[in-house]
Design brief:
The chain is an alpha/beta fold. The chain contains 6 helices and 5 strands; from the N terminus they run αβαβαααβββα. Helix content is 42%, strand content 22%. It is globular.
Length: 156
């Protein structure tokens, strides 16, 4: 897990720009990134796409991806990250989509399952996370993990 301060320290003066696409975190990631002075140097913006329709319209996630894999999937997370990177013109983008709970979980996709996608000029990938606790814990864990992924992608 990383903090907004660690993100700023890693990126200050490097010229790398970031954007985010959020679903289950509902804007918490963008709020965390911008909670520190100087974030305007590297953060270009974010899209909160809670509904599938918003994921399709704003980020270009394919309806076929959502139908085949669902919004909480590595495939959707990658398309969300690619879409955010294109939408904002950033060097790196991260996406977050998951089941924060307390309801909505299934045996295949339980509460606490979060997929994140990363998009950069080096390519795109998805990573699966499982967070415990209540809704707030899942969302906070996802924010910290997403900032760590941003640092990794921006510096890697």
């Amino acid at each position: 897990m990383a903090t907004a301060e660690e993100l700023r320290e890693a990126l200050a003066g490097r010229g790398v720009t970031l954007s985010v696409a959020e679903s289950c975190t509902g804007g918490m990631l963008g709020a965390a990134v911008t909670s520190v002075p100087g974030s305007g140097e590297y953060f270009l913006g974010g899209a909160v796409t809670y509904s599938n329709a918003a994921k399709e319209r704003l980020l270009g996630v394919r309806a076929s991806t959502l139908a085949a894999h669902g919004a909480v999937s590595g495939e959707a997370a990658v398309e969300m990250a690619d879409g955010a990177r294109a939408l904002f013109g950033s060097d790196v983008a991260v996406s977050v989509t998951g089941v924060a709970g307390p309801g909505g979980g299934t045996a295949a996709k339980p509460v606490g399952l979060v997929w994140m996608g990363v998009s950069s000029e080096k390519g795109s990938f998805a990573r699966e996370f499982r967070f415990g606790g209540g809704r707030g814990d899942v969302r906070a864990g996802a924010v910290g993990a997403a900032m760590a992924l941003l640092i990794e992608a921006a510096l890697g």
